[in-house]
Each structure stands twice: as C-alpha cells, then as structure tokens.
Amino acid sequence: MAKIRGKKNSTKKEVIIEKASKLFKEKGFGASSMRDLAVHVGVEAASLYNHIQSKSEILQAICFKVANEFISHLDAVEASKEPVLKKIEMIIRFHIRMMMEQYEYVYISDHEWRHLPEPYLSNFLNQRRSYRKSLADLIEDGISKGEIKKIEPYVAVLIILSAISGIESWQRSRKQISAEVLEENMVKYLVEGLK
Amino acid sequence: MAKIRGKKNSTKKEVIIEKASKLFKEKGFGASSMRDLAVHVGVEAASLYNHIQSKSEILQAICFKVANEFISHLDAVEASKEPVLKKIEMIIRFHIRMMMEQYEYVYISDHEWRHLPEPYLSNFLNQRRSYRKSLADLIEDGISKGEIKKIEPYVAVLIILSAISGIESWQRSRKQISAEVLEENMVKYLVEGLK
DNA sequence: AATATAAACTAACGGGTGTTAGCATTGATT
DNA sequence: AATCAATGCTAACACCCGTTAGTTTATATT
Questions:
Q1: Phi, psi of A95 (to 5 degrees)
Q2: Considering chain B, what percentage of its residues have pLDDT values greater than 90?
C-alpha cells in the first residue's frame, strides 16, 4: 500500500500541492487530471481526497499563497523610507526572485487563475487590480517628485509586471545566461526605462 | 436546419476558426469543447467535422497564422535600410498592433501553444526561438553600432516581447486609456530603455 | 492484544469529451 | 424534374473526468 511522503515537516496536503504545482505548470490546470496527479504523488486518485477538498482547492491554495506574498512585500516596501525609484527597484527584484524561487506557483497564478471558481476568482482579480493600482500610485508619486519621467503609470506597471512574467521563457530555456545576469539586466532596462 | 454563415467571402472553415478564436481566448483551449464551439457557430458539434479535420487543427491554424505574420514582418524590417533603433521601434509597433487587431489569435498563440500536437509543437517552438534569435541579433547589431546601450540582447528581447504580451491585461480592462496612448507610452518606455 | 484513528484502496457515479458513421435536408447542376 | 454535391442532423462510440461511498490496511494509542 502506497504512502504519501514529502519533505521533512510537510503535511500530506502540502506535498500534494507541491506536486500539483509542477504538474499544472507543465501541462496546464485543465489538462492535468487528478489521476495524473495521483501518479506523481504515489497513491490512487481517490486517496487525494483524504487530504484535500477538491482539485479546485489546490488551485486556490497556489494562487492565494502567491498573491499574499506579493501583497505582504508591497506593504513592507510602501512602509519603507526609500526614494520612489529605489522602491520600484525593490519591487522589481522581488518579482524576479519569486519567478526564480517559486516559479511554478507564480506561473500557475499568472496563467491559470481563470479556472478559479467564484467567489475566489473575483476576490483574486480584485487583489491583483488593487496591487497594480498601488504600483501605479507609486509611479505617479515618483513622477510628481521628478524621479520618474512622464509616463502613463498604468502602462509602466503593465510593462514591468508583464516583462517579469516573461522569465517563464528563461525558465523553459537552457539558461545560457545566469539568474544573476538576467536579474541585473532586467533591473537595468526596467528602472532606466523610467528615468 | 442550421447553416454556417459568416462575413462575406469567408469559407465555413474560416468562420469556425474565427468563432473558435474568441471561445478559446475566453475559456482556454482545454476548457472549450467542440459542443461549446458548435453553439457559437450555430450547428451541431458533429457538423463541424464537415469543414475541419479536428479540434487540434483549429489551434494549428491560429498559431501558425500568427507566427507567419510576425515572421513576414520581421523579414521586411530586416530588409529595410533604417537605423537599428528605428527597426526595433517598427517591430515593437507591429507587435502592439497585432495585439490590438488580432488579439484573440495572438493571445491563443501565446498561451495555448502547448496543446499543439507533434510535430507542430516542435515546429512552432523552433519558429519562435528563431524569431527571438533574430531580434537578439538585431539588438547585438545596435549595441555594436552604439545605438543601443550595453545590455544582454536575450534579456532585452525577453522584456520587449513579454511586455507587449501584457497588453492582454489592457484588453480585458475597461480601457480607460486609449490604444494610441498605450502604444506611445509602451514605445517610449521600451525604446528609451534601450538607449 | 485490543481498539481507535488515519489513510489507502476499489468500485462506481454522473457527467463530459472528440470524433465517426450513416441518414436527411438543402442547394446546385444538368 | 432528376441527379449530384454539400452540409446539417442524429446516434453512438470509446474514453476520460472529478469525486463519493464503503471497505481494507496501516499506524497509533491504550
């Protein structure tokens, strides 16, 4: 009889979610079946339901975990006393780090949110909208202080967040440039594009 | 008895693909069924097969149509005698225009390519890789001519293409800024970020 | 050792999927 | 009007899906 095993101090649910994140990233949420996931976890599909409520709950866990980390970091940055451009850089670096360290989770949260059921979907989209609004306000602030050139804050936010999302392409590649080089070049382009 | 009707001079297959592009953009390829598509087209699901080979063929048609348009435009730009930075700007504007004018097709091609079956998948990814390589070469050329600052060409390409892909967010929004304002601000940020 | 709890298993449910085969209807051609 | 071609329909195929119910096995507790 099989048994769910994972990293030290992980609950069985956490193991399932971790395995699911890899599968969903690779095949997409819809194309990944619970039977597929069960194979990766090492039990029968029906056994998963001893630890999770539903397939949907896995997606919720992944999306909201990522959202919460971004929001917490933004709150910390907003509370800091740095100049606006420095704050923007801190945020950019954090996003890049998340794409490096929690790539599967961030990828799924970016690409599969539309499979979230209501009211989670509305909640999630509202959080994202609010996050982008805060970033736009920060850029507005930077413009008014003369630290940032005149640009539509909305467009700047769209460019920054989308560009970082593109790290997925690097993740799927043979990584002929290092994570450090990627980060420094992205920060250079995105921050200097604002001056 | 129902009948497939579309724009003047469209074949039935083209109508089906057009309707499919909207459905796939809205719900995703996997979550869109042929029965769903049939409802949008106005016939029974089985009738679609009088005009198309398979669901997969629709995705192929969409992805390769988009790829061919990008490649054709790039070829034309490369053949032109403009300075490198001007060429980059022309390419950026073309991508933005495609996101405006053929949004559904471009969106699907960006997000659903992983559902392409072999050998179409490999072919498609090779074309995208080759396209990015050409862009990176262009940027390398601009750097060596002193038109573009020292930056990893690979990273610059990743940023540019990903940022433009983010127009999907604008497309899903209430569009409180116009397409023109979006385009000008994106060009400003992305081109000046290279100087 | 006996009992209780946790967790894995089997079997099945109710529903959906892409697609094919054969028939019926509509429209075009002679 | 008769015939042919195009195209829509019904019915069904073989399979897959997420999930539940009840049983069995493993582990923990007394």
A1: -60, -45
A2: 92
Which residues in chain A have their CB less than 8 angstroms from residue B166's CB?
Answer: 158-159, 161-163, 165
**Domain-embedded: residue B98:** yes
Alpha-carbon gap, residue B47 to B50, rounded angstroms: 6
Residue ranges making up the domain that contains B29: 12-50
Same domain, A144 and A92: yes
pLDDT above 80: residue B1: no
Asked which of A8-12, A13-17, A27-31, A58-62 is least confident by mean pLDDT, the reply is A8-12
Number of structural domains chain A divides into: 2
Interface check for B161 against chain A (CB to CB < 8 A): the answer is yes
Query: How confident is the model at residue B2, as a pLDDT?
Result: 81
Closest residue of chain B to A150, computed from CA coordinates: B185
Q: Can you give the distance from the CA of residue A41 to the C1' of nucleotide D21 in angstroms?
A: 22
A45 touches strand D (CB under 7 A): yes
Question: Is residue B174 domain-shared with residue B118, that is, in the same domain?
Answer: yes
Say if residue A29 is in the same domain as residue A75.
Answer: no
Quick: pLDDT tens for A73-104: 999 999 999 999 999 999 999 999 999 999 99
Can you tell me the mean pLDDT for A148-173? 96
Q: What is the CATH number of the domain that holds A30?
A: 1.10.10.60
Residues of B with CB below 8 A from A154's CB? 176-177
Contact status, residue B168 vs residue B100, Cβ threshold 8 Å:
no
Helices H / strands E in chain B, number of each: 9, 0
**How many percent of chain A have pLDDT more than 90?**
92
Q: Which helix (H) or strand (E) holds B27?
A: helix B12-27
Report whether A193 contacts A185 (CB < 8 A). Answer: no
Nucleotides of D under 7 A from a protein CB: 7-12, 16-22, 25-27
- The Cα B141–Cα B131 span in angstroms is 15
Task: Inform me whether the C-beta atom of residue B72 falls under 8 Å from chain A C-beta atoms.
Answer: no
Query: Considering all CA atoms of chain A, what is the largest pairwise distance in Å, rounded to the nearest integer?
Result: 66
Mean pLDDT of chain A: 95
